[in-house]
Write a structure and sequence with these properties.
The protein is mainly beta. The protein has no helices and 22 strands. Strands 1, 2, 3, 4, 5, 6, 7, 8, 9, 10, 11 and 12 form a twelve-stranded antiparallel β-sheet that branches. It is globular and about 55 Å long.
């Protein structure tokens, strides 16, 4: 049975967070990141990050204001609730007013865990999961007096847990053509293992009713990666993701269970994704509303 929350009974350092992206039909996007943090002394706290194409906000909460379910996707931080049927938001802080309800349609999960057999490795610095590659949205939110209409839009949900984010990594996500039609999630990272490190890759591409999985545990090799993008090869498949330069907006990231690191994410990256099978070009899509992070050690 799939487990949706792993932090019950955990001691620090530890973090567990969820990345929820809401993309309007006309392009505007909003990302919300509820999270639990446990420091090395076992102290628990929670946070909610809000990201738009115009800016970002960081909200802190005591650990007592965090709840999550192991058996289903359901997370509460303060008065804000997230589950597989929608999101209920009630935020009134200095510089940020965010209120409203969004309804979510059925999630589109991957065929299997994105981590593959790596999920069984003990002591992983960070484990990744994808709850939905795309699902329909309905509803509106009021953000600092502006109405954001997500009716007919597309949602995306993923999760991370562990001690720290990788010291260096690239991450990109986009969805197009309808909530359950096409999408990409790519993560490349420098992964500590035994006495050294290796460059690991996990990737899922949905296109024309098929799911393509490229991953280190399936023999994928990262031929190159940088702030400009990545090229991954696995057997007859070759994936090229070209990303723009630019730092995006600041977000907090975990390091040894506490949110002591600053990274930058863009919700409005222009991403070109191409996938070949041998000499045949299966996919060539440029998305102006892709999410993109790149961090260097």
């Amino acid at each position: 049975m799939k487990k949706y929350y792993h932090g019950a009974g955990r001691r620090g350092p530890y973090f567990e967070g969820w990345y929820l992206k809401y993309q309007a039909r006309e392009g505007a996007a909003l990302a919300l990141i509820p999270a639990l943090h446990i420091d090395g002394e076992g102290r628990r706290s929670a946070s909610l990050q809000v990201l738009t194409d115009r800016g970002s906000w960081w909200l802190e909460y005591p650990g007592t204001e965090f709840q999550a379910s192991e058996k289903q996707f359901q997370v509460r931080v303060g008065q804000n609730i997230f589950n597989d049927t929608g999101a209920w938001l009630h935020i009134q802080r200095e510089g940020l007013s965010l209120h409203g309800v969004l309804r979510s349609g059925p999630f589109t999960p991957l065929r299997s865990d994105i981590m593959g057999p790596f999920r069984f490795l003990p002591g992983m610095e960070c484990a990744h999961g994808v709850h939905s590659m795309g699902h329909p949205l309905e509803g509106t939110l009021m953000l600092n007096g502006e109405c954001l209409d997500f009716s007919g839009g597309t949602g995306y949900v993923e999760t991370d847990r562990g001690r720290s984010f990788p010291s260096a990594y690239l991450w990109a996500q986009c969805a197009w053509g309808g909530p359950a039609d096409s999408g990409l999630m790519l993560a490349v990272a420098s992964v500590p293992f035994a006495a050294g490190r290796f460059t690991g890759c996990i990737c899922a591409v949905r296109h024309e009713g098929r799911e393509y999985r490229l991953a280190t545990y399936r023999g994928a090799r990262v031929e190159r990666w940088s702030a400009a993008g990545a090229v991954v090869r696995q057997g007859k498949y070759r994936l090229s993701v070209e990303l723009p330069e630019g730092r995006g907006h600041p977000l907090r990231a975990p390091a040894e269970g506490v949110m002591g690191r600053t990274i930058h994410e863009s919700l409005r990256a222009s991403l070109r994704c191409r996938l070949w099978a041998g000499e045949t070009l299966l996919l060539d899509h440029t998305d102006p509303w892709a999410s993109f992070e790149y961090a260097e050690a």
